[in-house]
Design goal:
Shape: elongated
Mean pLDDT: 83
Number of helices: 27
Structural class: mainly alpha
Order of helices and strands: HHHHHHHHHHHHHHHHHHHHHHHHHHH
Radius of gyration: 39 Å
Helix content: 55-70%
Oligomer: single chain
Length: 532
């Protein structure tokens, strides 16, 4: 392009000294472009860059001058005006990448990086990905999770990357995670991490940074960070949330929220959207991380925590983990409650054994039977109750030896109330019967009798002589009444049915009850005759 001058050029020593000379009739050159930029003649520069007839080399010079002087907004205006936008953008991309990766001064490299962020919005996805990857390689070479805070922070600030990390896509995740691990930009960067980390590998990097921050002495994680962290469907996230729950530095509401999120992750639900998420226990490595976290929870001093851990251990580890779960039971089962079940803990245990164990009873039953022999009274009491729920007559042979343990009370194990007044809440169903202390022997007999009654009840149901609703009520009564045996158990079931539904027990069942009573009475008469 010719630079046309209408008037005669006046050569002045002063102008030459100031370096403001342009060729009177020569081509536009780099020096003149710089003069335009310095003088603020941006419309002229924009026009030159946008004009496809301008030499591409000089257009790139103008682009680089804009970048040097921090005029990326004007650069974007010039690109918008260009009729050969695609070719111009590609030329800019390549030139700026070359300059950023050159041996030029760091300041020049940094300016080229800024220019790349100015044109990146015009690139195709694959080009944009390459640019971000190369920026990350240039900016973060040699940085890892062991880099000190001073070096990491210095690098990011010197290269002016702090505000640009969230624009780096997946390539900024590692460094953002390292920054979060030191408590830097936690709210903003944790949100970026969760929104951007789209592979398990990147998610583990993200949660590792958050977990490292959590582990810093004397620091309580901002709740916003944890709110973000719970969205990462990882075993490591589960472990972090359990640690948060067990940390008294957080208030109860936040701790309960953390444990609820941990349970939802384990069961495959996103904490907020409630949609299915990838399993966090589908490999042995993931399961090991989850089980290690649950080991902490089942060691809690709080009974409800251990019950949560018990259920989650069985869910995560299956039948193979049942031994481990039972070993964690302590002498306060009476405190293993659920807000949705306004009853003593034995109902909670019954519910769990019915829902979780009964479908796998062939595998579960031998494990429970072994604890009848090797367990303490807690483990024995729990196993007896679950074996009654399973309702298998084959268990009676294993239960029978416990009929000799007549002095080991289970009152404080199952029932609420003042320890010095164990009957404060529990009331005798049969008014005429004296209140008796529940012992291992008593529960063992109750379990054996309950199994017999369940067998008869199932027979009646199979014959079509019992409605589903009646079956559920009677089964609940057989399982839930622990302090009676023999005829008293059947009488209590009948009484409980009438109190609950306001009508007598159906004849199809009451006949079974009567048979049971008659058998017991005959047995008593024979024993008396023998004594005579």
């Amino acid at each position: 392009m010719k630079h046309c001058v209408v008037n005669i050029c006046v050569w002045s020593i002063g102008i030459i000294a100031l370096g403001l000379t342009t060729s009177c009739q020569g081509e536009i050159n780099a020096e003149e472009i710089e003069i335009w930029v310095r003088a603020g003649s941006f419309p002229k520069v924009n026009e030159f860059i946008a004009n496809p007839e301008s030499p591409m080399g000089l257009r790139i010079v103008a682009v680089e001058k804009y970048v040097e002087y921090g005029r990326t907004g004007d650069l974007q205006t010039a690109i918008e005006d260009a009729t050969d936008k695609a070719g111009l953008v590609e030329a800019c991309r390549q030139a700026l990448l070359d300059k950023m990766e050159s041996d030029a001064d760091e300041a020049v490299q940094r300016e080229a990086k800024e220019g790349l962020f100015g044109v990146i919005g015009y690139l195709q996805p694959e080009q944009r990905d390459e640019v971000l990857r190369r920026i990350a390689a240039w900016a973060f070479d040699g940085i890892d999770e062991n880099t000190s805070q001073a070096i990491l922070q210095g690098r990011v600030e010197t290269l002016r990357m702090t505000g640009q990390l969230s624009r780096m896509g997946v390539y900024g995740v590692p460094v953002a995670s390292y920054l979060v691990s030191y408590g830097l930009e936690t709210d903003r960067l944790s949100t970026y991490l969760v929104e951007t980390a789209d592979t398990p590998e990147l998610q583990r990097i993200a949660i590792a940074g958050i977990a490292k921050l959590f582990a810093l002495d004397g620091l309580v994680l901002p709740w916003r960070v944890l709110d973000n962290a719970r969205l990462l469907p990882l075993a490591e996230t589960f472990a972090l949330l359990v640690d948060v729950y067990l940390n008294p530095a957080f208030d109860n509401e936040k701790r309960e929220s953390a444990l609820q999120s941990a349970s939802e992750l384990l069961h495959g639900k996103s904490p907020f959207e409630k949609k299915a998420i990838p399993s966090i226990i589908d490999t042995s490595e993931k399961r090991t991380i989850v089980m290690a976290a649950l080991d902490k929870l089942i060691a809690s001093k709080r009974a409800a925590d251990r019950w949560d851990a018990f259920e989650m251990i069985f869910y995560a580890g299956g039948v193979d983990a049942l031994d481990h779960a039972i070993r964690g039971l302590k002498n306060d089962i009476k405190s293993y409650f659920r807000p949705t079940i306004p009853a003593a803990a034995d109902y909670v245990i019954i519910e769990m054994c019915r829902d979780k164990f009964r479908p796998k009873k062939e595998a579960v039953r031998p494990i429970l039977e072994k604890w009848l022999k090797k367990g303490d009274r807690v483990q024995k009491g729990f196993s007896l109750l679950c074996l009654k729920v399973l309702g298998d007559s084959a268990s009676k042979e294993k239960i029978a030896p416990l009929l000799e343990e007549k002095t080991k009370s289970l009152e404080r194990l199952f029932f609420f109330g003042n320890p010095s007044k164990p009957y404060k809440i529990r009331k005798a169903m049969l008014k005429e019967q004296p209140k008796r202390t529940l012992t291992i022997a008593k529960l063992a007999q109750n379990t054996m009798d309950g199994i017999d009654q369940l067998q008869k009840l199932n027979g009646i149901k199979s014959a079509g002589n019992l409605s589903d609703d009646d079956y559920k009520v009677v089964e609940d009564l057989i399982l839930g009444i622990l302090e009676y045996t023999g005829a008293q158990l059947t009488e209590a079931v009948s009484k409980g049915y009438e109190e609950k539904l306001g009508k007598p027990l159906p004849g199809s069942i009451s006949g079974t009850v009567a048979t049971a009573k008659k058998g017991d009475n005959n047995t008593k008469r024979k024993r008396r005759a023998g004594k005579r």
